[in-house]
Design a protein that fits this description.
- This protein has 1238 residues and is mainly beta.
- It is 5% helix and 44% strand.
- It contains six helices and 94 strands.
- The strands form 26 sheets. Strands 2, 5, 6, 9, 10 and 11 form a six-stranded mixed sheet that branches.
- A hairpin with a 5-residue loop joins strand 64 and strand 65.
- The longest helix is centred in the last third of the chain and has 27 residues.
- It is a single-pass type I membrane protein.
- InterPro entries: FN3_dom, FN3_sf, Ig-like_dom, Ig-like_dom_sf, Ig-like_fold, Ig_I-set, Ig_sub, Ig_sub2.
Length: 1238
C-alpha cells in the first residue's frame, strides 16, 4: 500500500477528478469487466425437500465464465453429478430428488465471474438447511391454582432453523382469548397475571409453526383447574418478566427492538412505558400485547438509552429499567462505483463505510488481496480510496472493497475500464416529455464516451445554446427546467462532444394545464343505516385522460355493492359503523393528480351502559355508578335512570332522575318500602341507548306515609249525602304495608268535632243523612302499619243538591221582528234553588203556522242563560207562526218546575222562493212560463213580481221589463217577442213585508225558417289526433248550451250526446278504430249538417290464442267431452272383469300411458306450436302413437271390439291412427282424442 500524500493540492486535484469523472453505464457492446447482477442472500436457509439453487448472475464483454469456492476451497462441480451450473450463468442447482440430504451441501459458497478484463466476486453465501425438530415427549401433570394467583404455562418449543412462530389454541383449533390479564410473552409462554375460575380448562395447547417447511407441531395439552374455595387476596404488582430489577439489551442498527414487561397482581396491573431523558419515537414505535410489549422498528443509534416499564394497580406500582445499546454492522456511506477512463486520464474509487465498532477496509483486485496482486504503477491505495493516474490501455480490472466489523461485512465490486470511445447518445430519439405547468421538467440525455463527453442543449434551433438561471444542467446530461410554462414547449437538442467525435439527439416538451379539484368532498355526519353522498368535481387539461379514484383511509374502497362510484360522486348506502373514516377522491391523469379528503362520521345511539354498582346505602338513598357505553361519535348528553319496584309493580320501569352526560354516578333519593332495581339509558343526538342490565336489588325499610292523598273533594250525589273523594297514594307513596285512609268531616261553622272513619283500598266515602247543600270541612289522612302521615289540610265541600222548588215568574215575550223575539222573567228566590244556581232554560216550540196551507208543528228548542240573566233572545223563529214557551231554573241536580206556558204569534215575513219556474211553451214570437207558490209563504201572498230582458250572443243584457202578477196566477204568456232571441226571466213572491228571493230561467224563441235567414252553424269540420276526433264549427245562434252528437254510420242505435264546454271545438274520445261515424252539432231548435268521420284501423299486436276467452271455452268443452268418453270406457272395461290383455297391462304397466286415477283427470298442457305433442305424450311427427314395441295397449288398438257385457272378443291389431278410418261408434282412445285436438 502506498503512503498517503501529504500535500493539499494533490488531494484537491483528486477530489476534483472524482467529481468530474462520475460512474457511467457502459453499453454492452463495448468491452467491459464482469459485473455481478444477481446473487443469493448471504444467509440462505434452504428447504430440505427442494433442490438447492444458489444464484450468481453477471454481465460483461466478453461474457464472463464462472467458478465457485466452498468453505474457502475450489468447488469442482464436475465431480458431483448432482450439482449443475446453468448454461450462460453461474447459478448452481443441487439436485436432491434422488434421496440426497441437503445438509451434505451446507457450507460457505462464493462465486467468481471472469473475463479477459477482470474478475468479480459475490458475497460469501452461507447455506444452511431449515430444521423443524419434533417436540420431545413429556408427561405434563395437571396444574391446580388458587383463584387470584399468577400462573405461567411454559411452551419451550424445539429449536428450529429459523425459529418457529408460537401460538396457543384449544382442541377445536380456536385461538385462546388473550387480554391484559392473560397474554403470550415473546418466548411463547402464556402468562396469567391472576387466574380466575373461567380459566379452568384441559386443552391449553402450544403450537409451533416452522415457516420454511410450513409445518405445525403441537405440545401435549396442559390442564388447568382453578380453585374458588376462598376469597382471593388483592396485591400490588410484581414483575414476572423480567425477573430482575434492571436488565440490558443490545440491538443492531436497522433491526427491530422488542422489550416486554409482564406483571403479576390483583387487580390486573396496567403497564406503561417511558424513555428516560427522551421521547419514545412515535412514528416507529408501537405498543403490543396489551401494552406489555414495546416494539421499535428500524432501530437507529438515537434509540439507545434507558427505557422503563411501569405496572400499576390500586394497591401500588412497580417499575423495571432496560438499558438498550445499539451497535451496527457495516453500512455504506459511499459504495465504490465503476470507473471508465480514457488512456492517460486520472480517477479515483472511494469505499466509505460506517458501523459500531468502526469497520476495517480491505481492498482486493480481481478477487485477490491487492497486496498480492501484480504491481500497477498507475494505482495508489490511500486507506478507503484508490487513486489512478496516467492509466494505460490493458490495465482494466475489477476491484473489491470489503468493510467488516464484529457484526458483519460489506463486499462491493467496482471495475476500472480503460476505453477510448467517441460520444454516443443512449437516450431514445424524439421522445415526447409531458409536464404540468409550474412543475419541473427533466429532459434526459444519457450519453457514453471516453473521455467523458461535454453536453450542451439547444431549443428549437442550433442558433443559441441554453443557459441562465431558468435551466439546471445535471452531471448526467439531463436538462432541468424549474418552472415549466407553456412557452417552454418545443423541440430540444442535446449535443455530446469529446476529442474523438460528436453526437446529438432531439426530444420534445409539452407543457399541460394542471389537474385541480374545484369542489372537494365535505365533512359528513350520518346516522347508521342512512345513505351518504360525497361529491368531487375537478378540471384537467383537455388533452389528458382523467380517472377518478376513491380511497377510504388511504386504501381501496371495500368490495361492497353499497359503495357506488359515479363520475364525480361516491354514494354509500345503508351506512354501517365500519364505514366511518377518511374518504379521499383522487383525480389522476398520466402526468399529475389532485386529491381532496373528507371525514365521514357515523353516529348512532350510545352503547349500553355497563357495570352498574350500588354503594353508600342509606335509609332513603343509595349511590349508583356505571360505566358508559361507546358514544358512537356523538357525545352523550345525559343519562336517564329508571327503577323497577319488584314488590308492587314487577316488570314496570319508571323514570327516576336524569344526570348530565359527563357524570357516571348519581345519588338517588328513594322511598321507603320499595324493592328497587335500577337501570341506566344514555342519550345522544341520535337517541336513547338500549337499557343497561338491571342492578342488584336494593330494598328500603317501611315507614309512615310522607304525604296525604291529593285532589280531596266533597260534593253530593243525592240531596241528603256528601261524597268525599281523593286521589289514592301509589304503592311507592304508601311507604309501608297496611295503607288506609282516615276520612274526616264536619259541618262548617256548625260542628266543633270531627267525624272520622278509616277505609282501605277505596278512593271515596259517602256520608249519608246530611242537610241539603250545606258546606262541610273535609280532610283525608294516609296511615299504614308504621303510623299516620302528616296532618292534612281541610277543604270545603257541599252536600248534595235538590231540584229547585220554584219556577221563574212574570214571564213576558216581546216580538222584535218576524224571526226574533225577546223573553223576560223574574229570578227565583235563593231558598228555592236548594243548591247552586247554574242558570235558566227557555223551552219553546212552534205549534202551528197561521197560514191555512201549512200548519205542522216544529221541534222543541232550548236556550240556556246564565244565572244572573233575567232576559234573553230567541233567534231564527219562523214568521207567521204561533209559538209556546216556558222557563225553568236549574242547578247541579237538575231543572225545577216550569213557568206557566206562554203563547205568542210571529208577524208576517218575506216569502221563500217559488217552488218551481219553467218555460212550458216556445213559439216564434211568444213564450209561456209556469211557476209554483213558495213552500215557505211566511204570510199571506199578495202577488208575484215578474221581470224579463233579452240576452245577446255576447251575454250582454237588454232593457229589463217588470210585471206585477196576482197571487193566484201560476203561468204567464209573453207575446210579440223577437224570433230566435234569447230571453232571461226572473220571478219572486210577495207578502205585505216585501218580496222574497228570485228564481231565474232562460229560453230562446224559435228560429225563423224563412230562406233569407242565415243558418246557425257553419264550417263544421273534423281532424284526427292521438286523443280522438277533433270537431270544430262556427255558431251564430243565441243558444248557450251546445252538444256534439255522433252515431256509427248505418247503425240503428240512438245518437250519443256530449255537452260542449262553451268553446267551438270538441274532442270525441273513445271512438272505435276502423269504423265510420256520423257527427253533428246541435242546439235547442236547430242543428248542423251531418259530418262523416272515419277512424283508421290499427294493426293489432299478435294475440296469444291460448289467452282468448273463446279458445279457453272451446278447450274446456272438448276436455269435458273427453272426460265423459273416458268414464264410459272405464265402465265398459270394468264390466268385462279380468282378461288376458288386461292382465298383461296390469303386469307390465307402461310408464307413459297409465289408466288415469280418479283424482288425476289431467290430459297434459295445450301447446300452440304446430307439431309439438302434448306434455306427457310422445307422439311422432307422423301422428301415430307408438308404444316401445308393445302391442298390448288399449290406446293403440284401432279395431277393439266388446261383447254386450263389455268384455273383449277380438285381438288388438296395432293399427295406427293414419289407417284407423273405421265407422264404429265406440269411444275413441283418450290419447288419440287429444292428438286429434293438436
Amino acid at each position: 500500500m502506498m503512503d498517503r500524500p501529504k500535500d493539499g493540492p494533490l488531494a484537491l486535484l483528486l477530489l476534483l477528478l472524482g467529481h468530474m469523472i462520475s460512474a457511467l453505464e457502459v453499453p454492452l457492446d463495448l468491452p467491459q469487466p464482469p459485473t455481478i447482477t444477481h446473487q443469493s442472500p448471504k444467509d440462505y436457509i434452504v428447504d430440505p425437500r427442494e433442490n438447492i439453487v444458489i444464484h450468481c448472475e453477471a454481465k460483461g464483454k466478453p461474457h464472463p465464465s464462472f467458478s465457485w469456492t466452498r468453505n474457502g476451497m475450489h468447488f469442482d462441480i464436475d465431480k458431483d453429478p448432482k450439482v449443475l451450473m446453468r448454461p450462460g450463468s453461474g447459478t448452481l442447482v443441487m439436485d436432491i430428488s434422488g434421496g440426497e440430504r441437503s445438509e451434505a451441501y451446507e457450507g460457505i459458497y462464493q462465486c467468481s465471474a471472469h473475463n479477459e478484463l477482470g474478475t468479480a466476486v459475490s458475497n460469501s453465501i452461507v447455506i444452511r438447511q431449515s430444521r423443524s425438530p419434533l417436540w420431545s415427549k413429556e408427561r405434563i401433570s395437571p396444574i391446580i391454582a388458587q383463584k387470584g394467583q399468577s400462573l405461567i404455562l411454559h411452551c419451550r418449543p424445539p429449536a428450529g432453523l429459523p425459529p418457529p412462530i408460537i401460538f396457543w389454541m384449544d382442541n377445536n383449533f380456536q385461538r385462546l382469548p388473550q387480554s391484559r390479564r392473560v397474554s403470550q410473552a415473546l418466548n411463547g409462554d402464556l402468562y396469567f397475571s391472576n387466574v380466575q375460575p373461567e380459566d379452568s380448562r384441559s386443552d391449553y395447547i402450544c403450537y409451533a409453526r416452522f415457516p420454511h417447511t410450513q409445518t405445525i407441531q403441537q405440545k401435549q395439552p396442559i390442564s388447568v383447574r382453578v380453585l374458588d374455595n376462598k376469597p382471593a387476596e388483592e396485591r400490588a404488582p410484581v414483575f414476572m418478566v423480567p425477573s430482575e430489577s434492571v436488565s440490558s439489551k443490545m440491538v443492531l442498527r436497522g433491526e427491530v427492538l422488542e422489550m416486554e414487561c409482564v406483571a403479576d397482581g390483583l387487580p390486573t396491573p396496567a403497564v406503561s412505558w417511558v424513555k428516560r431523558n427522551s421521547e419514545i419515537p412515535s412514528g416507529r414505535a408501537s405498543f403490543l400485547n396489551f401494552n406489555k410489549t414495546l416494539r421499535i422498528m428500524d432501530v437507529s443509534e438515537a434509540d439507545a438509552g434507558e427505557y422503563r416499564c411501569f405496572a400499576k394497580n390500586r394497591h401500588g406500582s412497580v417499575h423495571h429499567s432496560i438499558r438498550v445499546t445499539v451497535n451496527a454492522a457495516p453500512y455504506w456511506i459511499s459504495a465504490p462505483r465503476n470507473l471508465v477512463l480514457a488512456p492517460k486520464e486520472m480517477g479515483i474509487i472511494t469505499c466509505r463505510a460506517a458501523g459500531h465498532p468502526k469497520p476495517s477496509i480491505r481492498w482486493l483486485v480481481n478477487g485477490l488481496p491487492i497486496e498480492d496482486a501484480p504491481k500497477d504503477p498507475s494505482r495508489r491505495v490511500e486507506e478507503d480510496t484508490l487513486i489512478f493516474s496516467e492509466v494505460q490501455t490493458g490495465s482494466s480490472a475489477v476491484y473489491q472493497c470489503n468493510a467488516s466489523n464484529l457484526y458483519g461485512y460489506l463486499l462491493s465490486n467496482a471495475f476500472v475500464n480503460i476505453l477510448a470511445e467517441p460520444p454516443r447518445v443512449l437516450t431514445l430519439p424524439n421522445i415526447i416529455y409531458q409536464v404540468i405547468r409550474n412543475k419541473p421538467a427533466l429532459l434526459e440525455c444519457v450519453v457514453f464516451g471516453s473521455p467523458v463527453p461535454t453536453i450542451t442543449w439547444f431549443k428549437d434551433s442550433r442558433s443559441s445554446m441554453l443557459e441562465g438561471n431558468a435551466y439546471v444542467f445535471h452531471e448526467n446530461g439531463a436538462l432541468e427546467i424549474h418552472m415549466s410554462q407553456p412557452s417552454n414547449s418545443g423541440k430540444y437538442t442535446c449535443v455530446a462532444r469529446n476529442n474523438l467525435g460528436i453526437s446529438e439527439n432531439h426530444v420534445y416538451l409539452e407543457v399541460k394545464e394542471p389537474t385541480r379539484i374545484l369542489r372537494p368532498p365535505e365533512y359528513q355526519v350520518v346516522q347508521r343505516n342512512r345513505d351518504v353522498v360525497f361529491e368531487c368535481k375537478a378540471k384537467h387539461d383537455p388533452s389528458l385522460v382523467p380517472t377518478m379514484t376513491w380511497l377510504k383511509d388511504d386504501r381501496e374502497l371495500p368490495d361492497d355493492e353499497r359503495f357506488r362510484v359515479d363520475s364525480d360522486r361516491l354514494t354509500i348506502t345503508d351506512v354501517t359503523e365500519s364505514d366511518a373514516g377518511t374518504y379521499t377522491c383522487i383525480m389522476n391523469t398520466t402526468l399529475d393528480q389532485d386529491s381532496a379528503s373528507a371525514q365521514l362520521t357515523v353516529v348512532e345511539q350510545p352503547g349500553v351502559p355497563t357495570d352498574l354498582e350500588l354503594t353508600d346505602p342509606g335509609a332513603r338513598s343509595v349511590q349508583l355508578t356505571w360505566t358508559p357505553g361507546d358514544e358512537h361519535n356523538s357525545p352523550i348528553k345525559k343519562f336517564l335512570i329508571q327503577y323497577e319496584d319488584a314488590l308492587h309493580q314487577s316488570g314496570v320501569w319508571h323514570n327516576l332522575t336524569e344526570v348530565p352526560g359527563t357524570k357516571t354516578t348519581a345519588h338517588l333519593k328513594l322511598s321507603p318500602y320499595v324493592h328497587y332495581s335500577f337501570r341506566v339509558l344514555a342519550l345522544n343526538d341520535v337517541g336513547f341507548s338500549h337499557p343497561s342490565m338491571p342492578s342488584r336489588q336494593f330494598r328500603t325499610s317501611p315507614a309512615a306515609p310522607d304525604e296525604n292523598p291529593t285532589e280531596v273533594k266533597g260534593h253530593g250525589t243525592e240531596h241528603n249525602n256528601l261524597v268525599i273523594t281523593w286521589k289514592p297514594l301509589t304503592p311507592l307513596q304508601a311507604n309501608g304495608p297496611g295503607l288506609q285512609y282516615k276520612v274526616m268531616w264536619r259541618q262548617l261553622d256548625m260542628e266543633k268535632d270531627w267525624t272520622s272513619v278509616s277505609v282501605a283500598n277505596v278512593s271515596k266515602f259517602v256520608v249519608s243523612g246530611t242537610p241539603t247543600f250545606v258546606p262541610y270541612e273535609v280532610m283525608v289522612q294516609a296511615l299504614n302499619d308504621y303510623g299516620p302521615g302528616p296532618k292534612p289540610s281541610a277543604v270545603i265541600g257541599y252536600s248534595g243538591e235538590d231540584f229547585p222548588s220554584a219556577a221563574p215568574g212574570n214571564v213576558r215575550i216581546l216580538v222584535l221582528n218576524s224571526t226574533l223575539a225577546e223573553v223576560h222573567w223574574s229570578p227565583v228566590s235563593l231558598e228555592s234553588v236548594r243548591g247552586r244556581l247554574q242558570g235558566y232554560k227557555v223551552h219553546y216550540s212552534r205549534e202551528r203556522s197561521l197560514h191555512r196551507h201549512n200548519s205542522h208543528q216544529g221541534k222543541q228548542r232550548t236556550e240556556i242563560f246564565s244565572p244572573n240573566k233575567t232576559s234573553g233572545m230567541l233567534p231564527d223563529l219562523l214568521p207567521y207562526s204561533v209559538y209556546s214557551l216556558r222557563v225553568t231554573a236549574f242547578n247541579g241536580r237538575g231543572e225545577g218546575p216550569s213557568s206557566v206556558p206562554q203563547r205568542f204569534e210571529m208577524p208576517e215575513g218575506v216569502p221563500g222562493t217559488p217552488s218551481f219556474f219553467k218555460v212550458s211553451a216556445i213559439d216564434l214570437d211568444s213564450l209561456t212560463l209556469e211557476w209554483g207558490p213558495p213552500h215557505e209563504r211566511n204570510g199571506r201572498l199578495s202577488g208575484y213580481t215578474f221581470k224579463y230582458q233579452t240576452v245577446n250572443s255576447k251575454n250582454d243584457l237588454g232593457l229589463l221589463e217588470e210585471l206585477d202578477l196576482p197571487s193566484n196566477q201560476s203561468s204567464f204568456t209573453l207575446h210579440n217577442l223577437s224570433h230566435s232571441t234569447r230571453y232571461k226571466f226572473y220571478i219572486s213572491a210577495r207578502t205585505q213585508r216585501g218580496s222574497g228571493p228570485t228564481l231565474t230561467e232562460e229560453a230562446v224563441t224559435i228560429l225563423d225558417r224563412a230562406p233569407s235567414v242565415t243558418p246557425a252553424f257553419g264550417n263544421v269540420s273534423s281532424s284526427l289526433s292521438e286523443d280522438g276526433a277533433l270537431i270544430s264549427w262556427d255558431y251564430w245562434g243565441p243558444e248557450k248550451h251546445l252538444y256534439v252528437e255522433y252515431i256509427i254510420d248505418n247503425s240503428e242505435e240512438d245518437w250519443h250526446r256530449e255537452k260542449v264546454n262553451g268553446s267551438q271545438v270538441h274532442v270525441l274520445k273513445g271512438l272505435k278504430r276502423g269504423l265510420v261515424y256520423k257527427v253533428r252539432v246541435v242546439a235547442r231548435g236547430h242543428q248542423s249538417e251531418e259530418l262523416l268521420v272515419k277512424v283508421p284501423a290499427m294493426v293489432s299486436p299478435q294475440v296469444d290464442i291460448a289467452t282468448q276467452g273463446w279458445f279457453i271455452g272451446l278447450m274446456s268443452a272438448i276436455a269435458l267431452l273427453i272426460l265423459i268418453l273416458l268414464i264410459i270406457c272405464f265402465i265398459k272395461r270394468n264390466k268385462g272383469g279380468k282378461y288376458p290383455v288386461k292382465e298383461k297391462e296390469d303386469a307390465h304397466g307402461d310408464p307413459e300411458i297409465q289408466p288415469m286415477k280418479e283424482d288425476d283427470l289431467t290430459f297434459g298442457e295445450y301447446s300452440d306450436e304446430d307439431h309439438k305433442p302434448l306434455k306427457g305424450s310422445r307422439t311422432p311427427s307422423s301422428g301415430t302413437v307408438k308404444r316401445d314395441g308393445s302391442d298390448d295397449s288399449l290406446v293403440d288398438s284401432g279395431d277393439t271390439q266388446f261383447n254386450e257385457d263389455g268384455s273383449f272378443i277380438g285381438q288388438y291389431s296395432g293399427r295406427s291412427d293414419r289407417d284407423a278410418t273405421h265407422d264404429s261408434s265406440e269411444p275413441p282412445s283418450p290419447v288419440n282424442a287429444m292428438n286429434s285436438i293438436v
